[in-house]
Amino acid sequence: MLTQFVLTKAKPKGKPYKLTDALGLHLMVTPSGARLWRFRYRFAGKENTLALGAFPDVSLAEARAKRDAARKLLAEGVDPSQKRKADMFTVNEAAQNTFGSIAAEHLAKLEADGKAEQTMAKNRWLLEDLAAPLANRPITQIKPVEVLDVLRRIERTGRRETAHRLRGAIGSVFRLAIITSRAETDPTVALRGALLTPQTKHRASITDERELGALMVSIDEYDGWPTLKAALQLLALTMARPGDVRLAKRAEFDRAKAIWRIPAERMKMRRPHDVPLSKQAIGLLEGIWDLSDGELLLSSVSSPKKPLSENAMNSALRRMGYTKDEVTAHGFRSSASTILNERGHDPEVIEAALAHQDQNEIRRIYNRATYWTKRVKLLQAWADLLDEFRRTSVQVRKIA
Fold it and tell me: Of 18, 271, 343, 366, which is the active-site residue?
């Protein structure tokens, strides 16, 4: 059997030669001076050799331990060389299947499924920016504590809701890895309840009829950019989302039939939505139609080819003297919903007007057909109420 003294004194010769230890282990000394551990064995009737590293990086004791581990595999009917190849394949596979690479696949799938650009932008921000510390980690090696550390960084900045959304986005990447056999567990499952509860903050809205009337008068008297004023008026009249209004295209409006057809790719639920246009809405369109000769109905201040910015309507409300805690552009939908419900209008028709889609496919198709006439009447009633609120506000102002 070999000793440390023999190994240290081994010198290169003109040809490779072996220094034998025991049980198949030997040291190969090459002409270049390299001293390489080798384990010779037989498996399935064939002789094979397993490399165990180089001396002195791998000591005599370590080489014997590796030999014994290989002999144990042989006793269990496993070829140690094939086992090593399989282990290397697993390691290489893990190195290629990083969280970042699978996150990119997940984003590509969302895009192929036709998700809205706003949805894509949010998911890219979550997975490419906020989850960046996980990007280069093999997905099979990521532990719950690592994910929790990423989430806690966000949570400590006060963005509790964002932390919860990030956990969900990360979980989606792991679920894709699981169904494609590149991971076995989702560490986000173990983190349920680990984060602080989000502090729900509702979008500010005005639900008092007199105060809403005062707001409409302020919008009517707004002397800023004409398309911005029109955007706020159209927002109030149609109960649409701010994004749908600012991105509205002239081709979507059928003024003769009094319909605004919002395409599926712009809708939150990815389904087309038809909006009945009241007489007041048609009058508004007639007044602003010639302000633009391009594709967009309401262009920005900087360019007729660009839509109003996301914050343009909120900024206009601030210039009118309304704070973000009093009203937001999205709050017009809450105003309409609250007041119309309080006045006894059919809640299901109101929900349909707000494009809150029923999850039942058959009932959704039925409602879309049967509620159209009711929605036409509802939107006209709402436009008339807004006029009534304006008159009341003006009368109160004169008395004051």
Answer: 366
Under 8 Å CB-to-CB from 228, ≥6 apart: which residues? 222, 298, 301, 308, 312, 313, 316
Find the catalytic residue in 330, 364, 368, 377. Answer: 330
Convert the pLDDT of each residue in 199-226 to its tens digit: 655 668 898 999 999 999 999 999 888 8
Centroid of chain to Cα 54: 49
To the query of whether residue 330 is one of the catalytic residues in this protein, the response is: yes
Continuous segment of H or E residues that includes residue 175: helix 160-179
| 76 & 179 share domain | no
Q: Name the domain count of the chain.
A: 3
Last residue of a domain, one of 191, 218, 240: 191
Catalytic residue among 84, 137, 268, 364: 268
| pLDDT at 363 (0 to 100) | 47
Active site residue 268: yes
Asked if 356 is an active-site residue, the reply is yes
* pTM for the predicted model, two decimal places: 0.54
Tell me the per-residue pLDDT of 304-314, one tens digit each, with 9 for 90 and over: 788 888 789 99
